[in-house]
UniProtKB/TrEMBL annotation:
Gene Ontology molecular function, alphabetical: ATP binding; protein kinase activity
Domain of life where this protein originates: Eukaryota
Start and end residues of each Protein kinase domain: 242-589
Name of the featured protein: Protein kinase domain-containing protein
Classification via InterPro entries: HeLo_dom (IPR029498), HeLo_sf (IPR038305), Kinase-like_dom_sf (IPR011009), Prot_kinase_dom (IPR000719)
Organism: Sphaerosporella brunnea
Pfam families hit by this protein: HeLo
């Protein structure tokens, strides 16, 4: 069978499988004690959905055979892959399109016939036979596929309930194993993209705390499952989903309840840290410090939020800082947040600032022999911002630039999927630690190499996307950055209307400017000095017409188009549209290789 013929079969059976999931996810009556089973099923439906999305499959009948070049290329990559995918999808369809097995084997009970009044006896005999005994595989004819669809449409419009959770768990195990097989047949980079898409597919528009906690519990349960056939191979994916669901729930919980149910971020003492301002960066808004408590001296990173306010506004400022600390100090964040562990924050009233304290990897801790010469030892541990590297480091390899761009886009996608906004994406907020030494004794690199493959996204603004106007006003007025580059990276509409609630799409604009700098390996400040009299809109237009096209020669047409799309995004789009646009940016960027 040719790849084209296989793709037709895959598309048809895939759509049948998605309809099958509707039997459980839209018409199933689940009491509270069965919510875990329900949400574990929703997770598997989401996994199948993003698998199809990745390969260009769509729910739309009119576009069913369009945009499947990626699927056909995947099927051509090995003569075994197509039949294995088709066989796996057929196994899933067979689980759903078999009313008798659903009831007698898998612990489901059909409470009522289809809502539209159709009864099984009134269906076409072939359709009724399929609805009772299961999907027919051969021959792969249009008539047979249509009959399969009719049967599953009937079953999905009935009302069902779980009568035997243990037997239903057996069905769930088979669905999970089938998805595992589909994912294992894809390339590793494809699985990474599917895992990222899964965050939005499962969590998008979910703001009810109880629902999010159910999702968290269900995915955490799957993360602990090491049974055959995958034996825990996908545990990391489920663990990330559990982390993201929990974090999104934290962001939506009522503040009054939050103070009573959740552990608050740790408030530290300024006196417990010996700051080293000579090892500062980002215009003095961050530096290294050494702890004064305990027998061992530990190197930490301190990032400051400065302010200039009167006493009346101070309480409101403290609330905003506390809310930011709740996110930064949350102990279980997805890795792609690109944020080091934050142990708490302190107030430094003499300098008009709050300091957020971040833990550093063990190889950057001071060894006993170095404690007597702290200043010299600390200089080897100083991080570098992307802003510094753009100005002082020779252009890095194109492959490394592509990797960095992909990591930052994935970070923003994950942050948005968890319900937050960064609000301060710029080169000064992107941090790199010293590389680890290859010597036996460990420690930082003696040649002062930078760990370019592990960026950290620092410098967060106040993180919720839906601040009230009052909060947005205080954010703009009270926290004063010490370098003048922040406005360059803000969306023109944000600068025109700073009192309006922040939109996640503003982050994408800022990200586009950073991607431009990474691609050219040139600071955007070099362009600002030439066009000081431009308005923000004129500046953006200048970049898009005169600067961004230079990317084509260095990074290729795809990278140039990605940056153009980030800078051209309209601010009046729906959140769902913004999510699709960012996914499109991430998907296209995956095709950039060197």
């Amino acid at each position: 069978m040719s790849a084209a013929d296989l793709s037709v079969g895959v598309i048809e059976i895939f759509l049948t499988c998605l309809r099958g999931y509707k039997i459980i996810t839209t018409s199933l009556s689940c009491p509270e004690e069965q919510q875990s089973l329900y949400h574990r099923t929703r997770t598997q439906r989401a996994r199948l959905t993003v698998w199809g999305d990745y390969f260009g499959l769509t729910h739309s009948t009119s576009r069913r055979y369009d945009a499947t070049e990626k699927l056909r290329a995947h099927l051509k990559s090995s003569y075994k892959i197509g039949p294995e995918i088709l066989d796996t999808l057929n196994n899933v369809a067979e689980l759903f399109v078999n009313g008798r097995a659903l009831q007698e084997v898998y612990g489901l009970y059909k409470v009522a016939e289809a809502e539209d009044g159709r009864e099984l006896l009134l269906l076409d005999p072939d359709v009724a036979d399929i609805a009772i005994h299961g999907a027919s595989r051969l021959p792969m004819s249009k008539a047979r596929l249509d009959a399969n669809r009719e049967a599953i449409a009937y079953l999905s419009h009935c009302d069902w309930e779980i009568t035997d959770p243990d037997r239903y768990s057996a069905l769930l195990h088979k669905l999970k194993a089938a998805n595992d097989d589909l994912y294992l047949l894809a390339l590793p980079q494809a699985r990474e993209m599917m895992d990222r898409a899964l965050l939005s597919e499962l969590l998008a528009d979910k703001d009810d705390v109880l629902t999010l906690l159910h999702i968290r519990n269900a995915t955490a349960e799957d993360a602990e499952d090491d049974s055959p056939p995958s034996r825990g191979f996908f545990s990391g994916s489920y663990h990330t989903l559990a982390q993201a669901a929990k974090l999104r729930a934290r962001g939506n919980i009522d503040p009054f309840l939050k103070r009573r149910l959740l552990r608050p971020p740790t408030i530290l003492e300024r006196a417990d840290f010996a700051l080293h301002p000579q090892l500062a960066w980002v215009g003095g808004d961050a530096c290294l410090a050494v702890t004064n408590t305990g027998s061992a001296k530990k190197v930490v990173l301190v990032e400051f939020k400065s302010y200039l306010i009167d006493d009346r506004a101070h309480r409101r400022l403290e609330d905003l800082v506390h809310r930011l600390a709740e996110l930064l100090c949350a102990g279980d964040k997805p890795f792609e947040f690109r944020l080091p562990p934050c142990s708490g924050y302190f107030h430094d009233p003499s300098k008009g600032r709050f300091g957020f304290v971040y833990e550093l990897p063990p190889y950057l801790h001071l060894r006993h022999a170095e404690e007597a010469r702290v200043p010299a030892a600390m200089s080897m541990r100083k991080p570098h911002s992307l802003m510094q590297l753009l100005k002082h480091l020779e252009p890095i390899d194109l492959g490394d630039r592509f990797r960095l761009a992909k990591q930052l886009v994935a970070a923003v996608y994950t942050i948005h999927a968890c319900g937050f906004s960064h609000k301060n994406i710029r080169p000064a907020s992107i941090l790199f630690l010293p590389a680890e030494s290859g010597d036996r004794g460990g420690g930082p690199s003696k040649s002062r190499k930078v760990a370019l493959r592990r960026p950290y996204l620092m410098g967060w603004g106040y993180t919720r996307p839906d601040e009230l106007e009052f909060e947005a006003d205080h954010e703009r007025r009270l926290i004063v950055p010490r370098d003048g580059t922040v406005g360059i990276y803000q969306h023109p509409e944000r600068l025109k209307s700073p009192y309006r609630p922040y939109k996640q799409i503003y982050d994408i604009y800022s990200l586009g400017l950073v991607l431009l700098e990474i691609g050219l390996w040139q600071s955007i400040e070099s362009f600002v000095s030439e066009i000081k009299d431009f308005t923000t809109d004129e500046f953006t237009l200048y970049l898009r017409k005169r600067v961004v096209p230079d990317l084509r020669g260095q990074c290729g047409a795809i990278y140039e188009e990605v940056v153009q799309s980030c800078l051209a995004m309209k601010v009046d789009v729906e959140v769902a549209t913004e999510r699709v646009m960012l996914w499109d940016v991430m998907a296209r960027l995956e095709n950039c290789r060197a």
